Amino acid sequence: MTLVVAATAGLLVVFLWNADLGRVAADLREADAGLLLLALATIGVNVLVRSLRWQYLLAPLGATACRHAAEATIIGFAASAVLPARAGEIIRPYVLARREQLSTAGAFATIIIERLLDLLTVLVLFGASVLVFRPMTGDLDPALWRAIEVGGLTAGAAAVAALILLAYLAGDIGRIWRLTGWMARRLPARFARGAEQLAGTFAAGLASVRQPRRLLVAAAWSVPLWLSIALGTWATTRALGIAMPFAGTFPLLILLVVGVAVPTPAAVGGLDEAFRLGTVALFAAPADRAIAAAIVLHAISYVPVTVAGLALAAREGLDLTRTARLARQDAPGGTAA
């Protein structure tokens, strides 16, 4: 916990370093309310699409109500906002599995599939966007942007190939073990053990999907989800007067995905600094305006869903800290805390 607090404080210091807080406040007051309402509306769309996609992935395990999937999703988001290490990722399937009488291990495994689909979708959209987007600032080295273009196209192509591979493996889980065995015979013993453990978790995730077609349909659900996330990011950025074209949202989202991966509660610091760096480098945004936009984006992304999630958890009588501990015990490979 000490390290999490230190990391959060350090990132906030970097984020606010040399900021003119008076100018930041002025930019906040001048924000376009209509675009901010549009950004806020996308949060509801995101939760709904995530819930429908998750319900579809869970179908082989048993029938689930969309309302229950949505409530568990919102509670999970709230848990990740107030607890470190993205605790909501284990609370969400735990809560739904208990409520719907599903296989707990199977529900956990679907989260692995979700995260893979999210990553692949972002990479595909990023790869497509670099074909039409160009940075709006002369401060970015053309050679660096060219490298980003090549990397984006390569990542997009690799993501499509990875999705095809996932669908192929989902058709026969034994293929994972045969591939792992082939790799293990060529790796040092300590790496081979890690590969086998990873393969076990991965196989459990794919087994919950079972049919390649189901995996591909879930991937299709991921496209409107991330287009909605992109729309909310674009609307917030434009509301603060930063001239970002919609295609430019996807290179920025790559940075935001990295920022959110920092395991601080509510991605505080990591998300904000990633947004500031991206908007300044790619769109020539004034630093203070970029800070103001990052604050607004963070608030829209986390405050409504956190308030709703905490209210739902209180209604269910859930202590999020205790629930996270129980969920870790039930998770595949989990141990008692």
What about the largest sheet? none
Write down how many β-strands occur, each being a DSSP E stretch of 2 or more residues. Answer: 0
Mean pLDDT reading: 86
Rg, nearest Å: 21 Å
**Secondary structural class:** mainly alpha
> What's the overall geometry?
globular
- Low-pLDDT stretches are none
Instruction: Please state roughly what percent of the residues sit in beta strands, choosing from under 5%, 5-15%, 15-25%, 25-35%, 35-45% or over 45%.
Output: under 5%
Helices, by number, come to: 14
Query: What is the helix/strand order?
Result: HHHHHHHHHHHHHH
Distance between the termini: 15 Å
Helix content: over 70%
Our count of domains comes out at 1
Please summarize what this structure is.
This protein is an all-alpha fold and 337 residues long. The chain has one domain. Helix 4 packs antiparallel against helix 5, helix 5 crosses helix 6 and helix 8 runs antiparallel to helix 9.
